Amino acid sequence: MAIPTCTKEISTIVKFVRAHSIDLAVCGGGHSLRPFGSATDGGVLIELSEMREIVVDPVNKTVTVQGGALSGDINQAVGKHDLGVVGGICNGVGVGGITLAGGYGYLTGKHGLSLDNLLAVEIVLADGSVAIASEEKNTELFWAIRGAGAAFGVVTNLKLRAYSQKNQVWHGTMNFSAAGLPAVVEVINNVLTKSDGDSTLEMRWRLVPGEHDPTIFVSVFYDGSEEEGKRFVSPLLNCNPAFNDTRSKSLFECG
Fold it and tell me: I need a surface site. Which of 7, 69, 202, 211 has the fewest CB within 10 A?
């Protein structure tokens, strides 16, 4: 394993493994349940945990981060300037992996995927050279990186678009018995057809050890006041969830 601290060191590593025909993999946040590109059998793993610098430009509403930064790092940094970014729904998700692979987040309904908000990258290519790619420079490479970035090199810095996020959000989880399914489906349909992008909902079935009947686990998010959020998901609240920890909070706390 190699743990570089800067782009130059990554370039040196890439040149070395290329010269010696050694397998190479990269780990950003390391959050994925499956190894994807961060697994190598006998090769070199570049671990980016020491590259987590974040620079916020509140005037132009952008944030530039190193490849090892986590969603929680970014949310906390931009939140100090009343800004938000489209990142992961978990603070431990690496920004590099989620952005280069697509990236669904709580703000996706309003602002698109993480990759839709990628403005530029610094990337170490397969020959060890360092390139900048954006809409203005190395445009074909930039097009390819968005959605398949791990296949083209080691992304060492990402520049992301940020958005005004002055208000708190309403977020939390609820649990229901199977009888609550119609209400869950109703709210899901509301998210899909009636929301203006302010709301998201995640539903999963759970079977608790020792229990015979599955329960419905629902995570709700509303980019607005608690009153507005409760009104939007009122069918769920009317079902008297067995568990409910929803409350107003900052975007950073949603992870």
Answer: 211
